[in-house]
Specification:
Elements lengths: L10 E7 L2 E6 L10 H9 L5 E7 L5 E3 L4 E11 L5 H14 L7 E10 L5 E6 L8 E3 L4 E5 L2 E7 L4 H4 L6 E7 L2 E6 L7 E12 L4 E5 L3 E6 L4 H7 L3 E13 L7 H22 L1
Antiparallel strand pairs: 1-2, 2-3, 3-6, 4-6, 4-9, 5-6, 7-12, 8-11, 8-14, 9-12, 10-11, 13-16, 14-16, 15-16
Length: 278
């Protein structure tokens, strides 16, 4: 099989890790007169469509978020990964805990798997770099991974991180070997990486994208007393202790940009339909 024109002047692979590739639309040519101006300035500000392209073969099958598949070529088949009614309910509980889809289909065989485009930034991580303990990611970031990557739901090590930090009680933890694709609100080259060696990192806000699973995570006051915290104006901080890595976003996560982008495109499409339908 040959796939022609997957890459061209407007679409190029910007990063590849093993059999995972990130396809970025440098300039979106599929525009109408109604949204051309928005698309032009979006491309100049690096707000571009991106897709994950996965090569599936006998050594690599892929697990993705439900509903993320756009097209596949070759002898590629999908399975639900559900082994029975009990397994389904177990996955449903885990999905509710981590804000992920209940069932993550697995694609296997020989061919190509292309995921739906997104305006978010796509980060590819090689699990080998995270050591035996693996990594834990913030809720809702998982997009796809190699089937050799093991996943489980882990509870916070301290109830204080839930009651005081505004965090969920559970997170998705990944380990093993293979590639993981995540959707992030900021580009990879803006992420700040902190390597801890029996040390601690304190973050004011929900800025950590992912961290080594062996790190202890708690939420604490910036000062020893409530009065001191109130006077300093800082209040509570997320604390990561131990030896490991943390990938941190420089700005607070928000979905408003992508919601606005989708709204703009939806309105433009509706306006086009009304205009050309007359």
């Amino acid at each position: 099989m040959r796939i022609i024109n997957l890459q061209n002047e407007n679409r190029k692979f910007i990063k590849s890790v093993d059999n995972f590739h990130v396809l970025e639309y440098t300039q979106d040519a599929s525009v109408s007169p109604m949204n051309a101006v928005n698309e032009y300035f979006m491309s100049r500000m690096n707000v571009r469509r991106r897709q994950v392209v996965i090569e599936v073969n006998k050594n690599h099958s892929a697990i993705i978020q439900a509903g993320s598949m756009q097209w596949m070529a070759g002898h590629v088949q999908a399975t639900t990964g559900v082994k029975g009614i009990g397994d389904f309910f177990g996955k449903a509980i885990k999905g509710a805990m981590t804000k992920e889809s209940v069932v993550k289909p697995e694609y296997m065989g020989e061919g190509y798997l292309v995921l739906e485009p997104t305006y978010k930034y796509i980060i590819l991580e090689d699990m080998a770099k995270w050591g035996p303990a693996g990594m834990t990611m913030e809720d809702g970031l998982f997009l796809a991974c190699d089937s050799s990557v093991r996943s489980k739901v882990v509870a916070r090590k301290s109830i204080s991180s839930v009651a005081l930090g505004g965090e969920g009680l559970f997170n998705l933890s990944l380990s093993g070997s293979g590639v993981v694709a995540m959707e992030c609100n900021v580009p990879e080259d803006e992420l700040i990486e902190i390597e801890l060696e029996n040390d601690e990192l304190k973050i004011d806000g929900n800025l950590a994208v992912c961290w080594s699973s062996n790190l202890d995570f708690t939420v604490e006051r910036t000062t020893k007393t409530l009065v001191g915290s109130a006077v300093s104006g800082e209040g509570l901080v997320n604390v990561y202790r131990g030896t490991g890595r943390v990938l941190m976003s420089p700005v607070a996560p928000t979905n408003s940009l992508y919601e606005s982008t989708n709204t703009i495109n939806a309105k433009a499409a509706a306006k086009d339909s009304n205009t050309f339908g007359q």
